[in-house]
Fold each of these.
Amino acid sequence: MWQFFADYPWFTLFIVIAAGSLFGMVRFGPVKLGAAGVLFVGLLVGALDPDVGKAVPAGLPVLGLALTLSPVGI
């Protein structure tokens, strides 16, 4: 099953975003993760199979960095 995620990195990306968005809506007492849920789900998927991280398309980390740092500049 994990090889499927390594073979289709764009599918994996959107699954992680969807699952992370749902995970971010869950309340843990007074705390709600929000968009950080995507980060935690991405870390979980990357930790479960190291081959998934190697299959990430070349421009995706740069895009993620730009989307993370752009609110800081605003």
Amino acid sequence: MAMRITAVVVTYSRPDLLPRVVEALLEQTRPVDRILIVNNACELPPKTPLPHRSNLLVLRSEVNLGGAGGFALGMQEACRLGTDWIWLLDDDAIPRTEALAALVDALPDLSSPVGGVCGTVREYGDVATMHRRMFDSLLGLERPLGKTAYSTASIPIDIGSFVGFMVSTSAIAVVGFPNPAFFLAYDDTEYSLRLKAAGFGLWLIPASVVDHIRAAESRLRYSRFGPKHYFNIRNRIAVKRSYSYFHNLSVLTGIFFGCTLWLACRGRFQWKTFRVLVRAISDGFRGRLGPYPETLERV
């Protein structure tokens, strides 16, 4: 039986980019069997030019589940409809024409069991190395693969972001779905480490390329300290505590990251942003996940 592949795209208020992602998926040299768009409680303008295809489905959530909940919902639906692999992409991740074919062609040469494969992410005209990383299980330190790794045919990794991450449904049957409680950020890190802990291999296939269309001001360190920073710091600490041997020491590295990020962002030295930082550290240490706390101001 031929391998069935479903692309799951989570979208939230980016109607200008979503059609480009869908078009890129439809132009893959190795066709995608089904495209499943998860509309995360946003209103797409009526003129959003999505093509009418029998294999293109839109699943709308009535509440914003965040990226984590959106991917979990899409993966659940893909498994229910029947598929062998699920290719995960954000609505600003545009795969090049050969991206899926490169992933599929690499599978027979990889050591089993393979839990997931992912390709090169390019941002701002260069390889974005932070999307594919190694993880130190003692202190929870993360190290991006160097650019020399991208000259190989394939290389094992510990962590892959959900920007062009293809996961096996055989692995999903063992480890489950991403944790929606992460809401935003580090859900893919936790999921990668969960796959690894269950004995599944993760691989970088550099020949598969996805262009991640981001504005420079969207980077955490260039924006005003607020909800996105809260999720990144909180979830980072929670993951380090769960997957590192020296739990408390690993938390210190997460706190150091959070404080450094706060000092680098707009809004530093303000009481309301400092409250966000403290709450993120506290919630991460205690494992209190979920949406943005209602008691915090939207800064």
Amino acid sequence: MTESIFEKPTSITIDALSYLSEVLKNGLKKDLQKHQKLCEDCKGTGLQITNQRYGLSNDPDKHKHLPYNNQYIISCRGCYSGVVSLCKFCNEKLSRFNDCDCPEALHEKDIERATREQEIWDKAIKLDPSDDITKKMGMYHSDDYPHSDGYFEEFEDFIEKWEENHEPDEPKPVYVWGTRLVSLSLDADDILDRASEDLHEDVLDDVKGKEELQNYLDKWCAKQSGTTTYYGENKYAIRIPWGD
């Protein structure tokens, strides 16, 4: 068997400048909005060079882990299309997520958050703990409850945990959110559709006892009490019985 002779990759320098000069001979037009400027990293081009380094398993020269390179042009990681946004308060460059942590920006976010919460509250149906709808929920949710991802069963437990973790003079939350219950369910039509995928086209027309199968599935699912799952939702706002 003849041993192959290793040949190193040939290094070639691409004349990218001449290509880009032709493509971009008229420049790039940018219509900057208020609180925007060109990205200093890519000079407004929206481009940058990245290195894709690689090695070859049969390379006898092992002193470098990834000695070879393929460079190419990608979108600039510091901006969008060569433009960055500036904070309208402090005029500092914003991250790609348009976040700023200056006091004025944080204050505006607090106001926006409070406005959204007020809108949700205004749309919610208000209930008391003694209402039948409340009692049938079985579980409630609040970001102020420090355990079980905010889910709890008894208001007494919620109040106890709040008092353990807060000072008496701290403002107390007024309400918690209701939940909806979801349990395991199986649909006979769906099961039959999947089971008959490789059968003839009209096979489902000849299937008998679909209602019988669905009744069995419903009874079987009703036994699977461990599958019960609660999801918090903003449909019902339930008053916390602090003084009751």
